[in-house]
Amino acid sequence: MDLKGEFIKLLEGEDKEKCVNWALDQLGRGLKVADLYANVLAPSLNAIVCLEKTEAMCIWKEHVKTSIVRAIIENAYPFVLKQRDASKHAKNKDLGVLVMCPPEETHEIGARMVADFFTMAGFNTIFVGSSTPSASFLSAIEATKPRYVAISVSNPYHLFKTRRVIAEIKKAAPEGVEIIIGGSALNGRKEVLKELGADKYLSSVDEINGLGGE
Ligand code: B12
């Protein structure tokens, strides 16, 4: 069985101890954090199909699985630092990235992974996370003066609010701040980038690796 298949089986069992130990074991054997996130954890969560009788049951089970994946991500941090590209870090360490989700977007695992992708690409990353109100976005930008603001949107329903938030950032942010947008709400909808007013749409760790100083 491939790694994704193995993990999906473990996650279905909702056994946190087995899932976390399995993931740390894979990292210890040399699996790249980016591969673990993008090719194992993300597709495993995205493959969840709820076969329970009620939506209430589905939601708490999704919470349990999400919390197991979050535990793996937090435990992977020492590997994130070990796998950070040293030459990129030398170039990008003074470039800040704020990673956040638009107001009312509760899905934040994608954003959390993206924060680690930016860290491994050498940036000084600040993860703000889900449901960030507009005033908070602006306050974080003012305080940290980032080079990039990366916004993760999972539910297409939140694209309208995302456009409003981007307009507010563009109005208030100092010159040079670029807004990057990504997340599953954008899958197959690349054309909305212009409508949203963001500077870039990115979807992969390779594209993140292409950003930054010369
Ligand atoms: C876990 C989950 C939840 C959890 C979230 C917990 C949390 N703290 O994050 C909970 C239970 C809270 C939840 C709630 C809801 N959910 Co939900 N949820 C999911 C689920 C199962 C997995 C999502 C996930 O975490 N995927 C893993 C991440 C890592 O993948 P990803 O986001 O795609 O990220 C990758 C890339 O896209 C990329 N990326 C992401 N962001 C960015 C940003 C940048 C800048 C870049 C470069 C790249 C990038 O990098 C990541 C790694 O490769 C999905 C999918 C499914 N099959 O059911 C539904 C899903 C996303 N949820 C959905 C819905 C509808 C809801 C609810 C409205 C349900 C409800 N009835 O209440 C609420 C939302 C409330 C709200 N206000 O937002 C829908 C979204 C609608 C749609 N049409 O797409 C989905 C698709 C389910 C479905 N099939 O209907 N959910």
Topology:
Layout: H1 3-12, H2 16-28, H3 33-46, H4 55-75, H5 77-82, H6 86-92, E1 96-100, H7 109-120, E2 124-129, H8 134-144, E3 148-152, H9 159-172, E4 178-182, H10 192-196, E5 200-201, H11 205-209
Parallel strand pairs: 1-2, 1-3, 3-4, 4-5
The structure holds cobalamin.
Cobalamin binds near residues 45, 111, 154, 183 and 202.
What is this entry, summarized?
The protein is an alpha/beta fold. 55% of the residues lie in helices and 11% in strands.
What does this structure look like?
- The chain contains 11 helices and 5 strands; from the N terminus they run ααααααβαβαβαβαβα.
- The radius of gyration is 17 Å and the shape is globular.
- The protein is α/β, with parallel strands linked by helices and 214 residues long.
- The protein has a 5-stranded parallel sheet, with helices on both faces.
- It has 2 domains: 3-81; 85-209, 3-Layer(aba) Sandwich (Rossmann fold).
- It binds cobalamin (B12).
- Cobalamin is lined by residues 37-38, 42, 45-46, 48, 59, 62-63, 66, 104-111, 113-114, 150, 152, 154-156, 180-184, 202-203, 208.
- Residues 37-38, 42, 45-46, 48, 59, 62-63, 66, 104-111, 113-114, 150, 152, 154-156, 180-184, 202-203, 208 line the site of cobalamin.
